[in-house]
Design a protein that fits this description.
The chain is mainly α. The chain contains ten helices and two strands; from the N terminus they run ααααααααβααβ. Strands 1-2 form a two-stranded antiparallel ribbon. The N and C termini lie far apart (152 Å).
Amino acid sequence: MSGPGRRQEESIYNLLDDAPLDPLRVTPVQNTRPAQDPRAVTHIEKNNPQRLASHQNSSQMSHFLNPEQGIRDQMTRHGIQPRNHSRDNRAAIREASAKNHFMKKNDDEAAQQANKPRRLPGGPPLGRPRAASAREAGGRDFVRENASEVVIPASKGAHALRKESASEEPAQKHGNFGKVPVYLQDRKMQMAELEAERRAALEDADVPPGMKVLTEPERLQMVQQLAETKAQVETELQKLPFTVETPSQIKRKQGLEDRLKEVEDALRVFSRKRVLVRK
């Protein structure tokens, strides 16, 4: 419940009107709070700091919310303009560059003045140096004379040398000129025979008993005979009809094919470098 009615019900005066207090029934309330020492109160008042002014409180809050960012920020807040070191460095670099350019220009001018030819007092004006002429002393051409003294004797000497070489008689050639001497040919044949004997001895060393190594002429002759036989058998096969039907034709074709296979196997054997045959 709210409003004037509620405040009226809770008023202490209404309570007094409804039920007057009995002095005999009222119990006094004792004060349990200890008494304060005046000296202690004075000490507390001295230790408590006084309340700061409003402008000091705002300054502290501003520093708390926006702290200083280095010495340059601190100088700016105190109204001092910090020094611009970057600008000063650029200015110093420009000044040093201009100074070096000026010194280099002076050095180049001094070098040009030192290399410049000087004109002697009363002398002819300086101009482009003129190449020395071959005809200066009495109209003589010393260059041509020196060349003739060196080149002409050399050419005469070479011509005389060729003439002497041509006048010499050619050497007489004997009958065996350009041929290998006979003793060298004999020596070469002896060495070839010895090498053949050595190889034959090595081959005979591992030949099984009852066998012999076929000589090279015999092997070549056998290869030639086998090649001719193979050609004959192939010719006989080509003469057969395309379709073999009769028993005699089939038998003949089979015999020719077997013969061709035997010849090819023998030809493969005798084509080797070393062939063993029975004695």
